[in-house]
Amino acid sequence: MSAQTFDRGGLVRLLAKAFAILVLVLWSLGPIYWALATSLTRPDELVSRTPHFFPPHVTFQHYARLFGGSSVSQGNTVQSVWPEFSAALLNSLVTSLGATVVTVAIAAFGAYAFVRLRFPGRNILFILVVATMAIPAYTVMIPLYRLMIQLGLIDTYVGITLIYTSAFLPLALWLMRTVYQAMPIALEEAAWLDGAGRIYTLVRIVLPLAAPGLIAAALLTFLNAWGQFIVPLVFSPTLATKPLTVLIPEFVTRNYVDYGLMNAAGILAIIPPIVLVIFLNRYLVSGLMAGAQK
């Protein structure tokens, strides 16, 4: 009797876990599937009263418009948006990669200084830097906008990169500080005894060992920069630096909402982050767990 009760209890728990996992998967992947299905549906079928969970007639005309082709919607020829889409894609790559490189470079050296160097107010300064993550972005938007105007950095790659760096550097510093604290100092002391300087020791010994943490910091910075909307909406008013996150909502016009084009662009926009997460996931996990054990 007890064995049957145990089996029933174990089966109930197993079914509950399976149901919870199913709900989580549907909650996470459902919107992505709906966007993909919408991007493959013809324009006339998108506005039908009957919702379609699967495209009745698969079409690639929305993707064709993104890559230089034209299509016909409601009897009208719709031109390609490739010039705007390619420019926004390049802007997203430039600003995200630029912010990632600058943020990780500063975090790699700055966090090492917070861990290994002794200077007055070290801990207080680090706490103040990390505490800036708690400041809502909208509270500094107006003064930051005035400052960027005075510096002539509105609608420039340098300006957007600097804003991203200031926003994501505290998290990268905290992560790299945790990584350095978990590393034994014996290897560095051995290098110092052999006559190596701090910079040489950091570049040739410490940074290779801290590679998982560096990759984790780079991945988090890139993902955060790639998904930004409010900052480029304010500081990138033209296509010179406008990223995909700001361009895609502009496919909504006064008289027509191009659902297929918006979702096709959204599907293409999530490919770079997905590829990075798939191939660098193990480095992200190991980097975040670097300071868990000392």
Helices and strands, in order, run as: HHHEEHHHHHHHHHHH
Number of strands: 2
Can you list the strand order of the major beta sheet?
1-2
Structural class comes to: mainly alpha
Tally the helices: 14
- What is the end-to-end distance? 48 Å
Unreliable segments of 5+ consecutive residues = none
Mean pLDDT reading: 87
Biggest β-sheet description: 2 strands, antiparallel
Rg, Å, rounded? 25 Å
Strand content: under 5%
Binned, the helix content reads 55-70%
Explain this structure.
This protein has 294 residues and is an all-alpha fold. It is built from 14 helices and two strands. A two-stranded antiparallel sheet has the order 1-2. α4 runs parallel beside α7 and α5 packs across α7. It is globular.
Summarize the structure.
By secondary structure, the chain is mostly helical. The protein is 70% helix and 2% strand. Helix 10 runs antiparallel to helix 14.
Features:
294 residues; mainly alpha; two-stranded antiparallel sheet
Element layout with pairings:
Elements: H1 2-39, H2 43-46, H3 61-66, E1 71-73, E2 76-78, H4 82-116, H5 122-131, H6 141-151, H7 157-182, H8 186-193, H9 198-209, H10 211-226, H11 230-235, H12 244-247, H13 259-269, H14 271-288
Antiparallel strand pairs: 1-2
Helix pairs in contact: 1-13, 4-7, 4-10, 5-7, 7-10, 8-9, 10-14
